């Protein structure tokens, strides 16, 4: 056998080894092997097959670079390695480092950059490279190939993880929406004493708005409108607990400040101060026509009567933020026939762009006075129509409106 045949056989055996290495790497990737094991396989190929005695492999992670593989020699700080690679930013293809004057780079033989859409996504530095001279180019190209295979695998892992996270969040939002829909009471109520209408317009699948209406006894009604900080399942769970607590205390306690104090302790105990609730809560006795209310840091409800509109601001601060509420000053009113109370959450006023000149509390008060003689349902529709026709900016939060007309 002549030297030409020997060289051909050696080349064929090398190609076979390369294919076997790629096959093993691909099989591992298809089995979704853990990232550390994948990196170990890369290092085994570099050490045992390519005869690379020293390797540094950096990949982009957000706005930074991390070193996911390193062996051989004295380890450098990742930041210094990155700066050294940036020193070669004009090099777009694998290049030898002979003659490069740099305290870090001079310890390596080759530099392999990986670019994607003109952005460097990975760098590899190779040192103590013992490949035969006639195979150096082949081995560097193969090294570049396996680096690309590993990078694609890592990117697919990241995308798969993001998809799972997205699906998990979507399912969480669906569960929260289902839970919230069970918490929202009937959106209309009417008898000989009051006429109630409510609208809930979520900004996303689920938000933090909540309202409730309870006929306490033959003479009294209680209603509440609230806004829970946060979104998603945690907000829905807090709302569920809040509703259960509210209804439990209403069944045994008729003093509104005491109910609010109890609710504050319950919310604080459940959230450890990490979430809070703003709310407006009121009790109306149709026999005495007396209304008692507490505004706990919420958008003031608006009372319309005899052509005038006033905000109901008496009460306390938000609940769930303090061990003890610093004060509770309930408001008391006599409700005249034909009066209307409009309750809403801050999403009614908040928009994507600055619309404060055309839509704010003052203009809302004007709308209330203009439409206060309507029924509860027609009043809500009039407010929402006014916003649609005059405020073009999109809402940035949930919108809840709750209106009561007193007979």
From TrEMBL:
<keyword id="KW-0378">Hydrolase</keyword>
<dbReference type="InterPro" id="IPR052016">
    <property type="entry name" value="Bact_Sigma-Reg"/>
</dbReference>
<dbReference type="InterPro" id="IPR001932">
    <property type="entry name" value="PPM-type_phosphatase-like_dom"/>
</dbReference>
<dbReference type="Pfam" id="PF07228">
    <property type="entry name" value="SpoIIE"/>
</dbReference>
<dbReference type="InterPro" id="IPR036457">
    <property type="entry name" value="PPM-type-like_dom_sf"/>
</dbReference>
<feature type="domain" description="PPM-type phosphatase">
    <location>
        <begin position="191"/>
        <end position="406"/>
    </location>
</feature>
<protein>
    <submittedName>
        <fullName>PP2C family protein-serine/threonine phosphatase</fullName>
    </submittedName>
</protein>
